[in-house]
Amino acid sequence: MVGRAWRALALAAPLAAGWAGGAGAQAVSEAPSAASVTVYRDQSLSAADLGALDPSQGLALITETRTVTLPAGLSRIAFRGVADTMVPETAAVEGLPGRMVERNEDMAILSPGALVARSLGQTVRVVQTDRGDGAVSERAAVIRSGPDGVLLDFDGRIEALGCGGAPTRLVFDRTPEGLGDKPTFSVLASLPAAGRYTVRLSYLATGFSWAADYVARIRPDGRTLDLAGWLTLSNKSSAGFARAPTQVVAGDLMRDPSTRPPPVEAQAIVPDCWGQTTRYQNVPTLAAPAVQHRIEEPKPMISELMVTARARKAVLSDLGDYKLYTLPEPTTVAARQTKQVAFLDEKAVPFDRVYVYRRDPYAPRDDPDAGDAPDVVLRLQNKREFGLGKPLPAGSVSVMEPGGGGLVLAGEQQVKDTAVGLPLELTLGRAMDVRVGVRVETDTRRREVVTRALAVSIVNEKPQPAVVEYHEPRIGQDFRIAGASAPSVFKAGDEVWTFRLQPGERTELRYSLSYRD
Amino acid sequence: MRTYILGLAAAAALLSGSGLAAEPGKLSLTVYNSDLALVQDIRDLTIGAGRQKIEFKDVSGRIRPETVSLIAPDVEIVEQNFDYDLLTPAKLMEKAVGKQVQIVRTNPGNGAQVTETATVLSVNGGVVLKIGERIEVLRQDDIPTRVIFDGIPQNLRAKPTLSVTVDSGHAGPRAATLSYLTNGLSWKADYVALFDEGPGKLDLQGWVTLTNNSGVDYPDAAVQLVAGDVNLTHSEQEYFQRRQNQRVNGVRRAGVGDVPAEGGPQSLADYYLYPLAARTTVAQNQTKQVSFLDAKGAVARKAYEYRAYGFETLQSPANADVAVQFSNGARAGLGHQLPAGIVRVYMRDVAGQPKFVGENRIDHTPEGSDVSVKIGEAFDVTVQPTVVAHDSAGVYRSRYKMSYLVRNARAQPATVVIRQGGLWRNGKVVDESLKSRRLDAYNLAWDVAVPANGETTLTFTVDTGW
Lengths: 517, 466
Known about the structure:
The complex is a heterodimer of chains A (517) and B (466).
Chain A: H1 2-12, E1 25-29, E2 34-40, H2 47-50, E3 59-70, E4 73-79, E5 92-94, E6 99-106, H3 112-117, E7 123-129, E8 136-145, E9 151-154, E10 157-160, E11 168-171, E12 184-191, E13 195-205, E14 208-218, E15 224-235, E16 241-244, E17 246-250, E18 264-266, E19 286-288, H4 302-306, E20 315-319, E21 322-326, E22 331-333, E23 337-350, E24 352-358, E25 371-372, E26 375-381, E27 395-403, E28 406-415, E29 423-430, E30 434-446, E31 449-460, E32 466-473, E33 477-484, E34 489-491, E35 494-501, E36 506-516
Parallel strand pairs in A: 1-4, 2-17, 14-27, 24-32
Antiparallel strand pairs in A: 2-3, 3-13, 4-12, 5-13, 6-12, 7-8, 7-11, 8-9, 9-10, 14-15, 15-23, 16-22, 17-21, 18-19, 20-21, 24-26, 25-30, 26-29, 27-28, 30-31, 31-36, 32-35, 33-36, 34-35
Chain B: H1 8-17, E1 26-32, E2 36-47, E3 50-56, E4 69-71, E5 75-83, H2 89-95, E6 100-106, E7 113-123, E8 127-131, E9 134-137, E10 145-148, E11 161-168, E12 172-182, E13 185-196, E14 201-212, E15 218-227, H3 236-246, E16 272-275, E17 280-282, E18 286-308, E19 318-327, E20 341-348, E21 354-362, E22 370-392, E23 397-408, E24 414-420, E25 428-432, E26 437-440, E27 443-450, E28 454-465
Parallel strand pairs in B: 1-15, 13-20, 18-24
Antiparallel strand pairs in B: 1-2, 2-12, 3-11, 4-12, 5-11, 6-7, 6-10, 7-8, 8-9, 13-14, 14-18, 15-16, 15-17, 18-19, 19-22, 20-21, 22-23, 23-28, 24-27, 25-28, 26-27
């Protein structure tokens, strides 16, 4: 397979012919002139969960426009003002003619410790101020070790820094080469001509996320609801982009855990004076993914949001197999901020209110008269003919119901991504005035075949009619309904009986089932 | 998918056969995928006649000292040491036990300084000193106390230092080759794939991402990258023994296309070699990226897939997986082997802007392979499986009647591959609404075509032992 290896060599050879060493011009692009931000969803979150994300979670695609003036030939262009959560290996630089030789992310940053570490063996000035008379003295010394315990060499006399009691500082003549205040992303490009170039820098950055939250308001008719959707943007990075065109992507993307910003090491100077109170050993270096400020974000008040007048909505389009929402106007996604924008506002969406009881075949058998409350479920169809027909990104739905002269929170639920055409079920909670009582009358087993007879009583104490669904899950092999007082239908793995009960009405279902254990 | 493993013997051939070697004053790095690099440093050293010590201060702090070799003409190695006993105030004090130091106390009240000579008796969780006839603990009273040492012991160093004691036959300058393995250097491949669904084309850019956390800079180094999951522990000793025996004359200057002569076919394992064409400085704490691939217009397609590993009912629909599939063959594809790495896929939005649509890892992929990269889940294409019946079909056999409701809310038709696992002994299809493909004894697949804004239900019945 040698041939294969040399082929690779031949392929790579034209890449960087002619470049030797670090020669070339240096240019710095301080900040973008414009930027756009596309925010991806971290998980299926609601706005209340966004506050718990840290800057290494979440994802955004950031596209910046920058202008740089460059000479002909080899130039190293440093890009400052990028998001601190940038993932450098995802960067793309477009708009430079000629050849890109390499690109670098330098994580070594200027810190007190780095200043000492890069000055080992060099002469610095040691300035002392006498506490008594304020006299300032200065001596030259060579740094022999550090930054974890700094030893100074005063012409052959070795002393540790900061142990004599007098206020002491080190004075350096220059900063070590190549250390900036932040990790620096730079590219090395070979340009055919000098000029002023407009460069597009795009990259993935963590710390950005968004969530969808819905408010469903049941109308007084009890049969339709108004559904409003809000998307909440969150920026946990320390980068802010003013008036940036902003989009969010709904859908589950494959992610790799290694796509995250590299750790940045900020070193301190640690004194070591041997004394019992001031002696430090094994002082860990500070390794933090950029700046980590934890802030408690207020849980957004959904009910307050509703009082805002009709909001301008985000515009929906397709991106591959995902949904792309474009915010109605450029927005400023400030550092460590959340922001909410409407994306859905549907009026009078019809729904069915159904009381659903699903028998648990493995429930404990210690109470023969156990009565139970069914779940209250609102059933919607996400179709245009049913008043909806919009993609619904996963999020939490708060259902409000008229009551007590105002609105009452009837229940909250997480929903999954719901495409157009799919049914949507919102489970509000347990019913109060609809009861289901299940009694297993006989349970026999002969040669692996289990046979059960059950009696179910259902009662509606509500002042309105109620639709009640009773579910018996199919389990085991050869499951059969051997006989029943009413016909059932098969739905998603369950035998289902449906009853329409008038106010105050009670009904009874008797059936027997068998299966092979 | 074949995996290319680099045997260590291949690394030997690589070192002796590559054009990187034996340029005096030059550094070369051979970096592997797995946090490992071979550093070869060729310097002009002026070596005197006879026995002497040569020090290398700028070697990697994560050097594997047992792999060091120094080769120079007419020079014999007596011993080599790697001193990583780093100089710190604590170490300096430990080395001062039994010796005299000066201590300077500053009276906090009046600022008066008192200098005394003390003997360090012990350094065990505190420093015990003998001052004259008094025994005291240093700084027990927290009074600021300076300690003045009159030197630094030879073997305490500010940086890890490699020292080699040699015996030279003659005095004079000559090219010496220092080579060693070190941890802290690694590389990976990062790909940017721009997928254009309409014409079914894919552009792929490949970047080598090299990371240096080894503690030192490698200035102006020739760099080559070896793709393969290297396991070096078995043969590294053998390899370095061979290197020792080879001496400097054994380093061949091979050009492009040259085939290293030494080593039989068994020593040349499969590997990919990516030399960077120009020398570059690999700085400490740096991530460096160099392009190695820019291929346009590979034939590519999007595929939907749903994998059922058993027979189960889902109460709500599940989203189908979306994969981008492309050929890596010479004619319709990229025609380039792909070292393992992360592929980040982009598609254009309605405004024509490329947007990230998902990422996944690929294995080392030889030319001629078909590559499938799962990028995410389709918002609009869903699959809802239902076990319609699960009946007994004899002793230790079951019959499953399944239904898969496949919905497509997109404006274009879609074909979803439904894969059914969970078959075992004598698994067979009893009936089916669409023709299945048998992937193997345990897995079936159906291509389910779903119209735009429509749905298709796949039903089938299978019998299987268990």
